[in-house]
Design a protein that fits this description.
By secondary structure, the chain is mainly β. Helices cover 0% and strands 42% of the residues. It is elongated, with a radius of gyration of 20 Å. 15% of the residues are buried.
Length: 158
């Protein structure tokens, strides 16, 4: 909506093992590919495994009003158990475990009798829990949904 730049998202494409290296040139063997790996893709060293965190679902301490800005994997709609990226982060007070409600954007309609433009109220279509926060954005998993959740839908404090 604001066309604000939030950053660049890295996507895990697969795993590779070092076969040989000489000066600045290395040969790698791809051991697992989740998606196509192409020239220009970046390599990142593998970190030690991380234990899965425990999340304690709770309402945010402040009023949050944010939007869904991306649904990973290039799709336009999400549902239960899908991951979404929202435009609120730690700078807004969001933390891991915060629960937000998702509301579908409602369009304006004309009153059939008066012809007056009416904005329908937003409709609650789901619930999400934040599992990773950055300064300006957060990742959440949709815990429930009653309709398709789209980019631009609103997420706010219950």
């Amino acid at each position: 909506v604001t066309e604000e730049f939030y950053g660049i998202e890295g996507v895990h494409l697969g795993n590779a093992t070092l076969v040989s290296s000489e000066d600045d040139i290395s040969v790698l063997q791809i051991t697992r590919a989740n998606q196509g790996i192409r020239p220009g893709d970046r390599l990142v060293p593998l970190k030690d495994p991380i234990l899965l965190p425990y999340y304690f679902p709770r309402k945010p301490d402040t009023q949050i009003d944010t939007r869904i800005i991306k649904i990973p994997k290039g799709v336009n709609e999400a549902g239960r158990r899908d991951i979404v990226l929202i435009s609120g982060g730690s700078a807004d007070g969001l933390k891991q475990g915060h629960v937000l409600e998702v509301y579908s954007r409602r369009l304006e309609r004309r009153d059939p009798v008066t012809g007056e433009k009416l904005r329908l109220p937003d409709l609650k279509v789901g619930t999400m829990i934040i599992f990773m926060t950055y300064e300006q954005v957060s990742y959440a998993i949709l815990m429930e949904s009653t309709a398709a959740i789209k980019i631009g839908d609103r997420a706010s404090t219950p």
